Amino acid sequence: MSEQKRLFLVDAYALIFRGYYAFIKNPRINSKGLDTSAIMGFMNSLLDVIKRERPDHLAVCFDKGGSVDRVEMFSEYKANRDATPEAIKIAVPYICEILKAMHIPIMVKEGYEADDVIGTLAKKAEIEGYKTFMVTPDKDFAQLVSDNIFMYRPVFGGGYETWGIPEVQKKFEVERPEQVIDFLGMMGDSSDNIPGLPGVGEKTAKKFLAAYGSMENLLANTHELKGKMREKVEASKELGMLSKQLATIMLDVPVEFDEKDFEMSEPDIEAVTHLFQELEFRRLIDNFLKTFTSEDTAASNELSDASKADNTPKTTAKEQISAGSGQFSLFGGEPSSVSKLETVSEYTRKTAETSSHFYQSVASGMATKLFIKNLMNQTSVCFDTETTGLNPLTAELVGIAFSWEVGKGFYLPFPENKDAAQELIEQLRSFFEAEHIEKIGQNLKYDIKVLRKYNIKVKGKLFDTMLAHYLINPDMRHNMDVLAETYLNYTPISITELIGKKGKNQLSMRDVPLEKQTEYAVEDTDITLQLKEHFTKELSEANTQKLFDEIEIPLLRVLADMELEGINLDTEFLNSLSVELNNDIANLEKKIYEAAGEEFNIASPKQMGIILFEKLKLIDKPKKTKTGQYATGEDILSYLAKDHEIIRNILDYRGLAKLKSTYVDALPLQVEPSTGRVHTDYMQTVAATGRLSSNNPNLQNIPIRTERGRQVRKAFIPRNEDYTLLAADYSQIELRIIAALSEEENMIQAFNNGEDIHASTASKVFNVPLNEVTREQRSNAKTVNFGIIYGVSAFGLSNQTDLSRTEAKELIDTYYTTYPKLRNYISKQIDFARDHGYVQTVLGRRRYLKDINSRNAVVRGAAERNAINAPIQGSAADIIKIAMINIHNKLVTNNYKTKMLLQVHDELVFDVYKPELETIKTLVKTEMEKAFKLKVPLDVDLDVGDNWLEAH
DNA sequence: CACATGTGCAA
DNA sequence: TATTGCACATGTG
Known about the structure:
Layout: E1 6-11, H1 12-22, H2 37-53, E2 57-62, H3 68-73, H4 86-101, E3 106-108, H5 114-127, E4 131-135, E5 149-154, E6 160-163, H6 165-172, H7 179-187, H8 202-212, H9 215-220, H10 227-235, H11 237-247, H12 269-279, H13 282-293, H14 297-308, H15 317-323, E7 329-331, H16 342-355, H17 368-376, E8 380-387, E9 397-403, E10 409-413, H18 418-432, E11 438-441, H19 444-453, E12 462-464, H20 465-472, H21 480-488, H22 495-499, H23 514-541, H24 545-565, E13 567-569, H25 571-596, H26 605-615, H27 634-640, H28 645-664, H29 666-669, E14 671-672, E15 677-678, E16 681-683, E17 693-695, H30 707-710, E18 716-717, E19 723-730, H31 733-742, H32 745-752, H33 757-765, H34 775-790, H35 794-800, H36 805-818, H37 820-836, E20 838-840, E21 846-848, H38 857-893, E22 899-903, E23 907-913, H39 917-929, E24 940-945
The structure holds a DNA duplex.
């Protein structure tokens, strides 16, 4: 390399946005409630660039006031952008201050975009003999690439790629980088709202460029094009030229390139550290100090690259096992041993600091029996099963990892031979079934289900880190990688690193070399063990220990049983339903095509919108979705249904197509061949309110409201003729909870009297005797009752009913006059949330509401609705969870043949052994009604039938 | 093949 | 401009 001077120009907003969205699932919020995601993301990238490249000249470029020229050319330019997120607006002043303290120049010119500033500076620097690197992910910059100007582009998953002329040529299939402008002009750019040529996407644009070289040349030769494409392009010549102009980065921004202004100099370390401290960026301080004080960073880069190369010969687990099955391998050993262990030794050092346990080497090749003897002496052990797949019904054990001391662990590989594997697991039976040994794990439901297939029941106290974290902060994600990063500041080996992305080439865990299996599996148990320490403390600080030990942990075993049990499905019935639907759908399709005058894809909202609103012009001012398409949702179309047969047919078509694809055809495919039943997976840590969710398949949204839809329920049947289905559901549990918590006497009375609550509400609100309430009145009252639970507005209510906005508002006012304490309760909840930052359920399940004091009314409003809804929905979830645990206990201890199969938020479904029916009916009703004592009685309806529809 | 979008099913 | 979810088909990269 020459000694050519190097200038780095950073596209600030691009990196800020990128940083912000990188944290979107788990925003970084500091103790003052400030969302620091954008600042942290940006600073991480900036330091990363400095550390890697050691630029001698550097500047950060911002936009200010948007591009005056482009908006003048095209008023819609960037008009489709969502409002900048609050966290980013807040971030900018902080970032500027940090840059000042770092003595890094900030370049900004009112009325110009950063692109233009960067472009102009890069060209000027080129004249001065610089090599310029434009630090941005934005591909538009490719147009500026030359022999001396490069893109330095962060890539997903870390690292950077440098785009010079060859890269741009390859990427865009152009000869010269300037042609990128033509390329963008032709295909448009939806993020900047550059229109482009209609019907031209990436593929066509590349084709045109290869043939014509430029937009101008294409437009001059449109006669060579064919058919529809010719028409469209010829009609859009102006649009094409405009698009090209919009995509062109300007090179005449009035800024000077004075090289000494751009020279890197020593940062004001104290000022930067102070700012980082204020923002609570502990890791960044370390990172910053390392970047600016360490002598040789290039060396460490080489090391990290070099460590990626893995030249160790691969020994597969299979080979190891055949060499001596039943041996376990060790995680650990002296760090001096092999270079490959470098990452491991570093990791152990880190944990050693906080745990006082140091890395220990243990003799390898210890006999399994000796290991188990050791295991049985522990009081608390973390374990994790490694298996051949994700389906616990078919997954085979590949190995099990164990840890009981931080920084140490063991891995026991399993033989592929089934008898041999069973023999090995038998040796561990005493451990898993030991009541006195606490078992720790991450997502134990999975491990418990896998082991159950080997006829092993996991007994003793449990601690599940995923469940613990769910109670600590239900709104976050709870996978182990995130938890390790958040709480231990450590990035574990990812499963993708081990077995690759899913697809044809994905490996099975069995194909991973034993050494890697060990490292990965034991790392997980080690981390889980450490997380437990954290979470135990946090659970007790939040007063949720009891909820954890008495609800979520016991429920985990209940759910494991329900999932393993599965439910019987009448697939023949569904298949015949599918044939019927097919006929009806085909008939509707024909009618719709006739009315539309052409064939199109009815399932495509895009095509449908164009047909309805451009071709048939059914409305003057069609509503559009946020992406600019016509909205064709049910709520919109149903207004038009009475005037247009095509709309009625479309609505019918959609209903039937949905039914067929989502339920009738999909469910039979979900029958597990090994059991002949459908096994859903209940997610215990997904819903922020404490509810369960159901997946693969979702059995919590089986249709019931329409006649056609509810037929699907006929397919859910008892296991055989000796059994019948029992459905038990809480009547109005959420309204009972809000009545009880608010102590609203008028509503409590109605429940005490066993009245129909919606009719009762209607009678009070519309001031008519109970027996004279009309259907419409009851229906409106019902809507308000539900609306209250969700935090309704007059607008929302009028949307859901036939009422006008004014009428809706009046109704809400009268409602609150009728139930005055309800309004009180609502404001008390909001106040509580403002003061404490969270709300809670009857069992103390918390939901944190960081936006409750936001200055943005929309954001705050959403938080306020959550403050009302979360305790209600969550308390209902708490209550049914108690009932499930108690019912399950009784079913098991009394050896009933009856099994609990499904939970649908306020309903439980059982496969009842007919001779037990009367006993079970009483048992279920009693346990559900006494699960939690409120100031309002709980009421449970029971129904029995030979399928799920009859049981309603 | 992965992801976003629009739509629609349940409590 | 109503809460919590999951999943389908289409369209795009």
